[in-house]
Design brief:
The protein has 406 residues and is α+β, with helices and mostly antiparallel strands. Helices cover 39% and strands 22% of the residues. It contains 14 helices and 12 strands. A hairpin with a 2-residue loop joins β9 and β10. The longest helix has 26 residues. It starts with 17 loop residues before the first helix and ends in a 24-residue tail after the last helix.
């Protein structure tokens, strides 16, 4: 006779309270108010709010048809028009997003992270699509690559800026560029240069961070490291194993000469299964010039279970920095990878159906704003609740909810 095992169901999340619902609605109103001035006409203003609301919904897919259906529209034409021909500036809304994050999620210990993610596509018409390595699937795939600047804060990660990477094919073939509306000034710019541009815009907008981190695609670029050093901006940047250290030695050769006693087992931060433990070691690069109170190090991370798996970093920061501190900074990249997964699961940055340059930037910007909104309301949910105040009777004929977009 078969044994029947008792199945335990996952406990349901508590139903949101009335206070929670009011907070969510008020915060969405605040987002609407912040970006309303970017839309000259009422129709795109209202549709942008409905688009954001759709991205925040539990709809299985966040494509034009689904978002139109949620908005009560018979066809996706209006949503597609919002992303293509409506008059509004996605970069101006991006600036509003940065200001919104500054207002709600300021963290003196924030770490800026440069990273990229791929959007797998069918066909060859979508702007920037080409066979290239896609981290989302771990292999070469027909995809678009977006370079992102994220801020990893104590409140959670948020995406601040974005740039679409154009592979070489899209820099040279004029016909698809014209069809996708690629601006003449958009060429095949390297990912580190795109990353530097994102950082430059963020700093110009007043974004501050304790550290900057990125993988070796970005850290291996001298001009990006030099840019940050000139700003005296602390960083922990991954570099290739072949990175020169001094005049002739490679990073892997230098690290291989370190004694066993140089290594310390430290956490690189919390993962889904608890602390992510690695062996870490570093060496002061005293021959490198640094401003007063700053220093350079070569840092290495070694897998505990597979000691032959190593990663290498150049560190530039306060001379008082500790190994445990820089290990935590290096680990912040995982928080941003989680942000990409969260965004793709909840606000659909990868589910757009537009093929143009303008459409990509508009959809991605609104999805980034939706993710920031979620981070803000989750922060509110973690804060201790204030005692409820007696409700005042509502005046007849008036709604308490602001209709900013009307």
């Amino acid at each position: 006779m078969a044994q029947h095992t008792q199945q335990t169901s996952k406990p349901l999340a508590p139903f949101p309270s009335e206070a929670d619902l009011h907070t969510w609605a008020a915060e969405l109103d605040a987002v609407a108010e912040k970006v309303a001035a970017r839309f000259e006409r009422a129709e795109p203003r209202q549709r942008a709010l409905r688009y954001l609301t759709g991205l925040l919904s539990t709809a299985e897919r966040k494509n034009g048809w689904q978002l139109a259906e949620l908005a009560g529209e018979a066809t996706p034409d209006g949503m597609q028009r919002l992303l293509s021909t409506a008059h509004w500036d996605a970069d101006a809304v991006r600036d509003d997003l940065v200001a919104y994050v500054h207002d709600h999620l300021t963290d003196p210990a924030a770490v800026l992270v440069l990273d990229e993610t791929g959007f797998v596509k069918k066909g060859t018409k979508s702007v920037g699509v080409a066979p290239q390595y896609c981290g989302a699937v771990g292999k070469i795939a027909n995809c678009q690559i977006g370079v992102f600047l994220a801020s990893a804060t104590r409140h959670g990660p948020v995406l601040l800026d974005r740039a679409l990477y154009l592979p070489k094919e899209w820099a040279e073939d004029l016909a698809p560029r014209a069809e996708a509306g690629v601006p003449a000034e958009a060429t095949c710019i390297s990912k580190p240069t795109l990353g530097k541009d994102l950082l430059d815009r963020a700093f110009a907008a007043g974004v501050e961070a304790a550290w900057v981190t990125a993988d070796s695609v970005y850290g291996g670029a001298y001009h990006l490291r030099h840019y940050l050093e000139e700003r005296e901006q602390s960083f922990v940047l991954a570099v290739p194993s072949t990175q020169r250290v001094g005049l002739s030695a490679k990073a892997e050769q230098v690290v291989a000469s370190w004694p066993d006693g140089a290594w310390q087992q430290l956490s690189a931060g919390e993962g889904s299964q608890g602390p992510r433990w690695y062996d870490w070691a570093w060496m002061l690069m005293s021959w490198r010039d640094a401003p007063a109170g700053m220093a350079h190090w070569l840092l290495a991370r070694r897998s505990v279970s597979h000691p032959d798996e190593l990663a290498y970093y150049f560190v530039f920061g306060p001379a008082t920095a500790t190994l445990a501190q820089v290990a935590q900074v290096a680990g912040m990249r995982w928080q941003v990878e989680q942000a990409f997964e969260l965004a793709k699961g909840e606000v659909g940055p990868d589910e757009y159906e537009v093929r143009t340059w303008v459409g990509w930037y508009r959809h991605i910007t609104l999805a980034m704003f939706a993710l920031a909104y979620l981070t803000v309301v989750r922060q509110h949910a973690r804060q201790p609740r204030q005692p409820r105040q007696p409700r005042q009777p509502a005046k007849k004929g008036r709604s308490h909810r602001k209709e900013v977009f009307h």
